[in-house]
Known about the structure:
Layout: H1 2-17, H2 23-31, H3 36-50, E1 78-79, H4 82-86, E2 93-94, E3 105-110, H5 116-132, E4 136-139, E5 147-151, E6 157-160, E7 167-172, H6 184-195, E8 210-212, E9 233-234, E10 261-263, H7 278-287
Parallel strand pairs: 1-6, 3-4, 3-5, 5-7
Antiparallel strand pairs: 2-9, 6-7, 8-10
The protein binds zinc ion.
GO molecular function, one term: zinc ion binding
Organism: Drosophila lebanonensis (Fruit fly)
EC number: 3.4.24.-
Amino acid sequence: xxxxxxxxxxxxxxxxxxxxxxxxxxxxxxxxxxxxxxxxxxxxxxxxxxxxxxxxxxxxxxxxxxxxxxxxxxxxxxxxxxxxxxxxxxxxxxxxxxxxxxxxxxxxxxxxxxxxxxxxxxxxxxxxxxxxxxxxxxxxxxxxxxxxxxxxxxxxxxxxxxxxxxxxxxxxxxxxxxxxxxxxxxxxxxxxxxxxxxxxxxxxxxxxxxxxxxxxxxxxxxxxxxxxxxxxxxxxxxxxxxxxxxxxxxxxxxxxxxxxxxxxxxxxxxxxxxxxxxxxxxxxxxxxxxxxxx
Length: 294
Ligand SMILES: [Zn+2]
C-alpha cells in the first residue's frame, strides 16, 4: 500500500514539475524496495518546497479549453493519417467497410494508469454502447494485434477514427469523474470516433442547421470547422442531429468567449456530453447492420 502511494506520488511530482531528471524521484525509485518511508519524506519535502499539493493529478472544471479541443489534432481530437485527412468528406459516418471493426467487435486495452473509478467510468461507457447497439467489446488478449489502446496521458482527449487493423490510440486525460475527458458523453464521443464517426458539425448539410461565426474563432483554428462534401461518410439518412455527443459546443475554439457555432433553431442545444442521442444510437446500429434496426 505504502509502495503504491509512493509510486503514485512519483507520478504526481513528475507530472507537476515536468522534471524528467528529478534526482529525488530517481533515488526513490531505486530505494522503493528498501526504504519507502525515507522516500515518502523526501517527496513530501519536495512537494512543499514546490507548492505542490499531494492530490491526484486532476484538472479543474474551471479550465476554459475543452480537452476535446486541446490536442491540436484534426477537429481537435481526431487522429487521422494523411490519406484519411485528404479523404475526410461527407456527413459524419464513415462508409468504408474496412474501417469497421470486424464482426462488430471492438477490442480495447485500458491502461493501468487509470484508477479503479476511472476504469469503471470507461467500462460504463462501453456498457452503454453494448446496451443500445449490437456492437460488442472485449478486453485485449496478449495475442491481439489490433485494439484500441486507451491511455491516460496529458494533452486532452483524442482518438484514432475507425478500425486501423493495428494498435490504435485513444487518450483520456485524467479529470475528476464527470469533468473534461471523463464526462460520460466525452467517453462515448471518443468511442464513436474509434468506431468510425466524425463530428456532427462537419456534415455537408450543416449550414442549414448552424451558423459558424468565423470572427470568433481563434486564428489558425478555422480548419476545425471545415465542412465536407461527398459520399465518403454518411448520416445514414437520419439528418442533422443537434443532440449528438459528436456535436461541438457553442464556444468551441472561441478566441473571445463568444459563440463560434449558433444553432439556427433557437430551441436547439448543442454540445451535450451526457450520453448518446437517439440518432447516435441509430447511426451506430445502422452502420453495423444491427438486426434490431436493419
Ligand atoms: Zn471528437
